[in-house]
TrEMBL record:
Name under which the protein is recorded: Flavin prenyltransferase UbiX
Function recorded in the entry: Flavin prenyltransferase that catalyzes the synthesis of the prenylated FMN cofactor (prenyl-FMN) for 4-hydroxy-3-polyprenylbenzoic acid decarboxylase UbiD. The prenyltransferase is metal-independent and links a dimethylallyl moiety from dimethylallyl monophosphate (DMAP) to the flavin N5 and C6 atoms of FMN.
Secretion signal, residue range per the UniProt entry: none
Protein family: Belongs to the UbiX/PAD1 family.
SUPFAM superfamilies listed in its UniProt record: Homo-oligomeric flavin-containing Cys decarboxylases, HFCD
Binding site for dimethylallyl phosphate: 160, 176
Keyword annotations of the record: Flavoprotein, FMN, Prenyltransferase, Transferase
Pfam families: Flavoprotein
Length: 193
């Protein structure tokens, strides 16, 4: 058909904030690549600090895992626009500070702006919120995000698969989060299969 416009490749925005659990964001980038999904990454300064504490990855190593990387201050980036089509956005891990900024539409950096755009365009937003115990303020922010259409998914481990390593626990949580975004990770074990 002449003049037809092909759909762009499947794109996923991945945000990494400063909560503990950067392994979730790292695995999301790896799994998305395995699934043939183009990744657009933004890491907050606190996320970079957590990367330093929790991994042996350099900032360059982490950036190399994504197809496109943005600076948190670049609020004019492609992912800050609703016209930039994506499958949605995953924030992994998601700090309470980032959750709160998203809940109350405080797009003060590219990660929170991209999340706000994801919600306003009615695309899937999945937040792997890392905090416990939860205060009433945390719960209210989670409720606000949920009421706007976001999905709050604390990465609670599933033991029914009888995991033998922390990696298996991380893999399961990330695969479930990507499922919520319509991204299927090949060869992941599923209940009853």
């Amino acid at each position: 058909m002449s003049g037809a416009v092909a759909d762009p490749p499947s794109r996923l925005v991945v945000g990494i904030s400063g909560a503990t659990g950067i392994a979730y964001g790292v695995r999301a980038l790896e799994f998305a690549r395995k699934a043939g999904v183009q990744t657009h990454l933004v890491v907050t300064p606190a996320g970079q600090q957590t990367r330093h504490y929790e991994t042996s990855l350099s900032a360059g190593d982490l950036a190399a895992m994504a197809d496109v990387v943005y600076r948190p201050a670049d609020i004019g980036a492609a992912i800050a626009s609703g016209s930039f089509r994506t499958a949605g956005m995953l924030v992994a891990p998601c700090s309470i500070r980032t959750l709160s900024a998203i809940a109350y539409s405080n797009g003060d950096n590219l990660l929170t702006r991209a999340a706000d755009v994801t919600l306003k365009e009615r695309r899937r937003l999945v937040l792997l919120v890392r905090e416990t115990p939860l205060t009433l303020g945390h719960l209210r922010a989670m409720t606000a995000v949920t009421e706007m259409g976001g999905i709050v998914m604390p990465p609670v481990p599933a033991f029914y698969l009888r995991p033998s390593s922390i990696d298996e626990l991380v893999d399961h949580s990330v695969a479930r989060a990507l499922d919520l975004l319509g991204i299927v990770v090949p060869d992941m074990p599923r209940w009853g299969e």
